[in-house]
């Protein structure tokens, strides 16, 4: 998919989007404001849709521990979990809608974990075992619970 056309579509939907570069890779940079805090999301466009388009938080390491956000190895990007198991139908006459839909979902998650600290904490606790397994390299190491 053409990055310039994605930027144009996002701009037409009111987003502050521009072409940019991250570690020599072309990307789309989207600036959002959540409670006065400027957040930058990055999207690395692909030629076709085989999954929900992904957006990453730039400089996520400066934020507090957030539910549904995990730092990417060897970078300051944060990957955002938006329930990948949910399906999205791609309208091949208007494929850019998948980007808008996905961006809206990513922003909703980020907004909620930043604005609702109690919900963020509950989500962190609810997903603790999954994160523990990830830290252990997905080995089936059991966590002793009561």
Strand fraction equals 15-25%
Distance between the termini: 50 Å
**Backbone CA Rg:** 16 Å
Helical proportion? Answer: 25-40%
Average of pLDDT: 83
What count of domains describes the coordinates?
Answer: 1
Q: Can you count the beta strands?
A: 6
Outline the biggest β-sheet. 6 strands, antiparallel
Please list the strands of the largest sheet in the order they lie side by side.
1-2-3-4-6-5
**Alpha-beta content class:** alpha+beta
Question: Stretches where pLDDT falls below 50 for ≥5 residues?
Answer: none
What is the oligomer described by this structure?
single chain
Gross morphology? globular
SS summary, helix count:
4
Describe what this molecule looks like in 3D.
By secondary structure, this protein is of the alpha+beta class. It has one domain. 33% of the residues lie in helices and 22% in strands. It has 4 helices and 6 strands. The longest helix is centred in the last third of the chain and has 20 residues, at 96-115. The model has no long low-confidence stretch (mean pLDDT 83).
């Amino acid at each position: 998919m053409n990055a310039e056309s994605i930027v144009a579509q996002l701009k037409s939907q009111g987003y502050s989007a521009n072409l940019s570069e991250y570690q020599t890779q072309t990307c789309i940079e989207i600036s959002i404001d959540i409670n006065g805090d400027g957040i930058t999301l990055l999207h690395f466009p692909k030629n076709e849709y085989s999954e929900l388009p992904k957006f990453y938080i730039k400089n996520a390491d400066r934020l507090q521990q957030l539910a549904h956000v995990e730092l990417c190895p060897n970078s300051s990007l944060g990957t955002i979990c938006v329930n990948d198991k949910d399906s999205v139908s791609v309208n091949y006459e208007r494929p850019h809608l998948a980007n808008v839909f996905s961006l809206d979902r990513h922003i909703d998650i980020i907004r909620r974990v930043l604005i609702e600290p109690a919900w963020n904490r509950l989500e962190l606790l609810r997903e603790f075992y999954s994160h523990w397994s990830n830290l252990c390299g997905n080995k089936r190491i059991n966590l002793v619970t009561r």
